[in-house]
Amino acid sequence: MPSKIAPIAVTAWTATSAVGSGRAAMLEAATRSRSGLRPNDFTHQPLPTWIGRVAGLEEAPLPSSLAAWDCRNHRLAWQGLQADGFLDAVARARERFGAARVAVVLGTSTSSIGATEEAYRRLDAEGRFPVEMRLPRVHTPHSLSAFTQEALALEGPCLTISTACSSSAKAFATAERMLRLGLVDAAVVGGADTLCGSVLFGFNALQLVSPEACRPFDVARAGINLGEAAGFALLERGPGALMLTGYGEASDAYHMSAPEPNGLGAERALDDALARAGIDASAVDHISLHGTASAKNDEVEAALVARRFGARTHASSTKGLTGHTLGAAGIVGAAFSLLALETGWMPGNAGSTRLDPACGPQIRLDAARADVRCVVSHSFGFGGTNCVLVFERGAS
To answer: What is the pLDDT of residue 396?
Structure first.
């Protein structure tokens, strides 16, 4: 088992999703179980499903200084960066440590592929992209991180992690190692993924998309709703009021899209996360579940929670609020975890009405408020790429 790690302070954080921009919108959605899902109106030929769409991105181009990066994914990232004073927090870190000592580590599963899809649909007579879409830096998997680094005027290490739906959770783990090794003094972590045809039609081809609003862990769940989101956190060596105290990563190597039936990879990630935090499962007050509302994911995750956690632990999925935001799912889960630590509010399973009998007493339908001191966040991706994060509240 890994050794206990020193805590990492989360000195600023924010998230933007279908429920709105910033922490206030998240809190309102969490306490009232207000969903941001709506019938699908995305792509030129919309599928009969529901989505978690962020409003206004089409009408909000990037500032002129960043125009060479313009695409839907970067517009979403820019909107996210402007919430909750995050830009100012990064500017202060840049002044304290120097631009070269602040890393950017972001997760995404599709990057700006939506812009590339559009460019291919609009090829000219010579088979070339339209002139206005010949933006080489946009059409790359590393586009999001490179854009964010330039937007924040940073010069440190810049990494993109793309491990499907665990991508932006793994960003925290990578940043912790960089900080512990002294490579940097601070790190901007998180990620962004926007809706695009590739994921909508791809998940539909896998027969994973629900024709109705998703219902995580519900006995009658019918599949996922795709969403889009951007979220960011600023990490510095701790301790602090909010802290990353543990993480665990594991790979199932079982199937390209199905989880290992017994949840062995997810459980190993959980074990490593708890070991690095130096705690037992009994110390966990809340679990932000991956909970996509797909048949197998929810079944395996529910079984893992039931066998490892006591009845007092409150567990829930926020996919009924935001949809499944793919590469941004990890940072969205982390943001709801930090919100629970900061406010005491733990979301319920929005959209669900009758839990699957396989669920233990930990998985709750309704939001609740308590003295939340320790939260675990699950992120499980295709190919069995599992990541579990532990966040704790510092001494007041």
So the answer is: 60
Whether 273 maps to a domain, the answer reads yes
Instruction: Tell me how far apart the alpha carbons of residues 18 and 91 are, in angstroms, rounded to a whole number.
Output: 27
Return the pLDDT at 382: 82
Q: How many CA atoms lie within 13 A of 373 on its CB side?
A: 9
Res 273: pLDDT = 98
Give every residue of the chain whose pLDDT is below 70, as ranges. Answer: 396
Strand order in the sheet with 226-227: 38-39, 50-52, 226-227
Asked if residue 351 belongs to a domain, the reply is yes
Is residue 309 a contact partner of residue 284, using CB atoms and an 8 Å limit?
yes
Q: What are phi and psi of 47, to 5 degrees?
A: -80, 150
Q: Give residues with Cβ within 8 angstroms of 277, minimum separation 6.
A: 4, 5, 245, 246, 374, 390, 392
Rounded Cα distance, 377 and 241, in Å = 18
Flag whether 3 is in a domain: no
290 in catalytic set? yes
Domain that holds residue 50: 8-393
Mean pLDDT of the chain: 95
Annotated catalytic residue 324: yes
For position 165, what pLDDT does the model report?
95
Adjacent-strand bridge partners of 301: none
- Number of structural domains found in the chain: 1
Name residue, tokens 């839907």.
72
The answer to whether residue 220 sits within a structural domain is yes
For the question of residue 165 being annotated catalytic, the response is yes
**Which residues fall within 8 angstroms of residue 120, CB to CB, at 6 or more apart?**
129
What was the pLDDT predicted at 252? Answer: 85
The separation between the first and the last C-alpha atoms of the chain, rounded to the nearest angstrom, is 30
Strand partners, 193: 229
Catalytic residue among 71, 165, 196, 214: 165
What CATH number is associated with residue 180?
A: 3.40.47.10
Catalytic residue among 196, 214, 286, 290: 290
